[in-house]
Design goal:
The chain is of the alpha/beta class and 271 residues long. Helix content is 53%, strand content 8%. It is built from eleven helices and five strands. Helix 7 packs across helix 9 (206-226) and helix 7 crosses helix 11 (257-268).
Length: 271
């Protein structure tokens, strides 16, 4: 099915059209929240680009598609954040590969950079050279939760695509339920000790904290869209969405996630 599995996602349609009409950009920012499987989306996009049997979509069955699925396609390079960030030396290694290693298949080289918004400033400045002087046929995908963490000079040289895509429904449902419970605790003025005990038990790491913020914002946005929230009025919802965004920014710059979530609960509760 390739990109076809994202039939309700406008991003997939845009990218499919770009492949079929030979309008591929040399760099994309694929941006989505914590629970969006951006890596799977990027792989399907790579299939759509490289598959000769079903160009623009990917057939899932040819040698190229199978090797992409199994992670052993020679012309597909991966970079992933280590120790909380993508380092300068990782970008240097990728640049060397893209510049000096010819495509084994005689076509395109594709690079997928996970956690792109965690690139150090030095790594971003180095990477900018690749965007300014791209190798012919190369397509680079930057996977990001918050592209605003990237330098403006990088963002301006990439096509930004907001990805919804496939989500792990059970995990998403659990996060949504947890976010709703926490919001309700804060709004009804639950004792702060009870709130912090609950959050410390349920939120074990930075990744979960960020996913919780995404789920909380979705709940509030939905409440505002229906204009029938029993939790708070529209003006208060907008105010609380601002608190969520601030908590996200704090965590992304390495403020302790427990502190950020506790502070958010106090702000939502109006304390």
């Amino acid at each position: 099915m390739g990109l076809g599995k994202y039939k309700d996602d406008s991003a997939a349609g845009r990218l499919r059209d770009a492949v079929l009409n030979d309008r591929l950009a040399h760099a994309y920012i694929l941006e989505g929240d914590m629970v969006t499987d951006k890596l799977s989306f990027a792989r399907e996009f790579a299939k759509a680009i490289l598959c000769a049997e079903a160009p623009g979509n990917g057939c899932d069955t040819c040698s190229t598609c199978r090797r992409i699925d199994h992670g052993n396609y020679e012309d597909l390079y991966y970079v992933s954040g280590s120790d909380r960030s993508v380092k300068d030396e990782q970008i240097a290694s990728l640049q060397c590969d893209l510049m000096n290693v010819p495509s084994a298949e005689g076509g395109r080289n594709i690079a997928i950079i996970e956690d792109a918004d965690t690139m150090t400033v030095r790594a971003q400045n180095r990477f900018l050279k690749t965007l300014e002087e791209p190798q012919p046929g190369t397509v680079i995908m930057l996977l990001s939760e918050n592209s605003r963490m990237l330098l403006l000079t990088i963002r301006s040289r990439c096509v930004r695509v907001r990805v919804g895509g496939l989500r792990g429904s059970s995990a998403d449902d659990r996060l949504t339920a947890l976010a709703g419970e926490l919001i309700d605790m804060a709004v009804r003025g639950e004792y702060f000790f009870n709130v912090t005990s609950f959050t410390d038990k349920k939120i074990k790491d930075k990744k979960t904290a960020l996913a919780l913020l995404d789920a909380s914002e979705r709940i509030m946005t939905a409440d505002m869209a229906t204009d029938s929230s029993t939790r708070m009025n529209r003006a208060r919802i907008l105010e609380c969405v601002g608190y969520i965004e601030k908590a996200r920014r704090d965590i992304l710059v390495n403020v302790n996630y427990k502190y950020a979530i506790r502070k958010l609960m106090l702000e939502i509760g109006g304390q």
